[in-house]
Amino acid sequence: EAKRHGGNTYRVFVPSYRAVADSRRDLIRDLREAIQTHSITLHYQPIINAQTRQLAGFEALARWTHPVLGPIPPDRFIRLAEEAGLMHDLGHALLDEACRTAHSWPHNLWVSVNISVDQLYHRNFIGEVRRILKETSYPPRRLQLEVIETIFMESDAATYSVLQELDSLGVRIVLDDFGKGYSSLGYLRFFPFSKIKLDASFVRDMLSDSRSAAIVSAVIALAGDLGVAVTAEGVETEEYFYRLSSKGCTEVQGYLFGYPMSQDKVASFIAGHFRRVPFVNQSTLQS
Ligand code: C2E
Ligand code: MG
Ligand code: MG
Ligand code: MG
């Protein structure tokens, strides 16, 4: 497209609809291949008990480095996988990988895996979770599944029954990104989540904005009254850690404690952590 301005001609590159559609189609093709060849892997980010400062577990986060385009953000390729109907296969492979990896960690540590809406409502999701747990002989109690509130777009009955079935397998269910969307408190009444994760956007603003700080305090207090643990996301400095810890937050996650790391770095991270912060009380890690 050319724009005329004061006699000069500016050429502005506007990709045609066709070009966009082609590159999207190429990316989906590459994504499908990456799933088949297991080139999408998990990185693991530590989550720390906010009261004892001990390592509690890790969140598994998907990573894809495209051979030409380089790293593609997970938000993007997860959405693409959903749109292309590939999320079921991808999610299955990642859950399997997470259970196999976490199996070798010390027994007091859990792994938390993000589950997309697509996966949750796939006809045999429960059967597959059960099968993965069995095949990997991974203890259900050490598995957390993180879901976001868009799962509540389905009928209440469908949502309730799938969450209930997971719960009865002994798996813990975590409500991720609390505060990012509508975050109706009704969700907490509707289903007994084990934990809610306070979205990083609240955490980020809590030091500069008294309203955000008030909301953080209220969510932590409410969760405490309901007997639900709270993990604060996006904790990048000691000051955030101190504030959250003194408000009674259960766990913290963020660059202050570690970036998401590849599977082979986890073992030395764990060893280093337990050298610095000796293991004291297992019951504090059970939240
Ligand atoms: P999420 O589940 O809320 O994951 C937390 C995100 O915050 C991760 O981004 C993590 O790298 C980032 N993060 C952690 N600590 C800090 C910090 O201190 N500061 C900042 N600025 N960011 C921090 P990431 O890895 O890019 O993942 C983005 C989102 O993609 C995830 O958000 C999740 O919704 C989705 N995702 C990632 N892996 C998977 C997966 O295996 N399955 C599904 N369904 N979704 C996934
Ligand atoms: Mg998450
Ligand atoms: Mg989150
Ligand atoms: Mg998120």
TrEMBL record:
It comes from the Bacteria. Residues 24-274 form the EAL domain. This is GGDEF-domain containing protein. It comes from Acetobacter aceti. The chain holds residues 497 to 783 of 783 of the full protein.
